[in-house]
Write a structure and sequence with these properties.
The complex is a heterodimer. By secondary structure, chain A is α+β, with helices and mostly antiparallel strands. Chain A has 2 helices and 8 strands; from the N terminus they run βββαβββββα. In chain A, the strands form 2 sheets. In chain A, strands 7-3-5-6-8 form a 5-stranded antiparallel beta sheet. Chain A has a 3-stranded antiparallel beta sheet with strand order 2-1-4, with no helix packed on it. The radius of gyration of chain A is 15 Å and the shape is globular. The longest helix of chain B is centred in the middle third of the chain and has 17 residues. Chain B is globular and about 55 Å long. Chain B starts with a helix and ends with a strand. Classes of the chains: A alpha+beta, B alpha/beta. Chains A and B meet through strand 1, strand 3, helix 1, strand 8 and helix 2 of A and helix 4, helix 5, helix 6 and strand 5 of B. Strand 3 of chain A pairs antiparallel with strand 5 of chain B, so a sheet runs across the interface.
Chain lengths: 135, 129
Amino acid sequence: MKAIQIKEYGTPDVLHWQKVEDPAAPAAGEARVHLMVAGLNYIDIYRRSGNYPESLPFPLILGQESAGIVEAVGEGVETVKVGDRVAYCNVLGSYAEIAKRSHELPESMKLSFTPNKISWLKQSALLKNMVQIWC
Amino acid sequence: MAETKRITEEYGADLVLESIGKTTFASSLEAAATHETVVCYGWSSGLPDPIAPIDLVARSLKIAGDNLVNATATREVLLRRANDVIEGIRAGWLNLHIDSVLSLQQTAEAHKRLESRNSIGKILLNITA
């Protein structure tokens, strides 16, 4: 798949579009999602520039908000099925064509059902920003 | 802050949602009406300068903090709240403003736009473009 990776902290110039290995088939409790839209969040800027208090391994795929279609699920996954439209946030790796997500994560980071009558763009944007304000 | 005072005829805001941090926190406190609350949930301009508790006393203000993880701690709550928002968008009373849509290849450009602070609303990356 293609993804945006960083191999060092720095300006936007460290964001490189390149071919990377596809995520492996989902293990138990995981789902693999074909991503359609990713949202930018200011935390992405902090992480890219190294100004966020955490230590993450390079190379790194940033981005923590996305929406897409479930393309495979691992053993024991019951909350989503192949073909479901889903949205998630607070998990790194959304600057990519495919992402793998675990159901071991806290509830708000999990994949969520979303109805078909809302656009991919709105679906991606609403979870982190609008639901957070709504709460 | 001045605009809030103008619109409310000097009363102030019943609730201030503060996500910018360093550059806006002080004016957010000023914009809140007496007895009302400022909720902090982000710091896109950096962490705000510290204040002393006495700064809250004169107008009986309250400061609260929140984040999405705690506010959607169970799947039931997450789905209920997400569906409230989705229903609002579908019904039209809630407007989701999208600033711009770029391709995934244009992520660096999207970062520059967000950092420039000229964007208003959400910047999205269309991964299928």
